[in-house]
Give the backbone structure.
Amino acid sequence: MDTPPEARDLDLCLCHSCGLACDMTDEPQACPRCDAALHRRKPNAITRTWAYMLAALVFYIPANLLPVMNTQMLGEGADSTIISGVIEFWQSGAWDIALIIFIASIAVPGIKFVVLTLLLVTAQRRSTWAQVQRAKLYRLVEVIGYWSMLDVLVVALVAALVKFQALSDIEPRPGILFFGLVVLFTMLSAMSFDPRLIWDTQPSEEVMDEVASH
């Protein structure tokens, strides 16, 4: 059975912004429809993904250790971290809000770190292991990335509810800034990874040349 030609065999490149199949015969620098920069592959995909993910991991530590908000009730104030906030909501009976914050603030970033590390390591090793499942994992990371700011919205909702109560106030703390950076860098990390690397199972030309020389 004949194998259908690939896009590179036809000198075609898919625009990452609008999806137009662009003719790369003359190596155009921009998409003729939306003027976005054209790349046959995402440039430095593995390096950029590692850099963004490690930056997010660094910010993930203070995001969970530092307080994210300060609540004052009847003149008495208390700082709350993400974990302590989850515990307080759970103990007060608001288990749904506690569950949302726990999943969005702790579970989702942790899952993204594990999945992206797995994708990066296997892509660098050009592994053929579970390629379909790894592609699905990447799509999962993309989907959950849309809900990364969910707990920030919950904190904003809680702040609004507290403001309605008499003799009470709420203020943000540095932890919320670090968590926002975690969300930003994990999203950039997922966007920088090129899922086509999952299917690149043959050694690169540079590696083949090096093997041949020995």
